[in-house]
Amino acid sequence: MLCLFTQSSLSFERGRGTLPDASGKTSLTLWNSTMSDAGRYFATLHINRKRTHVSGSAQYLVVTDPSGPAMRLYRGADDLGSPLFFCEVTGAGANWSDPYWQIKANGSVSTLDGMTAKRIGADGVFTRWSIIRLNSTLAVTCLCHQKNGTRVLFSSNEVDTRNGATACDWLVFLSPPCLLLFLLTMAAAILWTRRLRRLRAA
Q: Any stretches that span the bilayer, and where are they (predicted)?
């Protein structure tokens, strides 16, 4: 979003700005903000048709959905076949924690942070991710809470890898024996063909 202010006009339809004064500070106030307003903001000063950057660092604006963030949990496997879980949280502002994990095993629950990342997408939506890789099949829950002292939990998605197997899981287990059976069949066919040729030659 581009906001243009002059000495005679410091307001526009959804915001108000202040130009540098003796303190050298600029400010921009927005209201009725939308997801499209999220992004990186910095101030520039035009003097005699030349653009001069005002000293100071850029500020990030994150616009979130007040109705509450959304969470999605995906399950996959790495190159070695170990369970891999990907948790995505969208619309969670600074007052929400990064997604983290709870692992259930043998009646006990342990907490794991995992590998996290965050970014503002092209659509202005703030998204956080967390990824964990496990060496065994366990019940996994992805969590996120508000930082208001009461530890409010907004969502929990649980996947128990011990309950059944997907088509991809069966392919992982069945591919090696199927390949071995195919090779043995080909070897037996070649030996049988050579034997028939010898019998006919005799």
A: 170-192
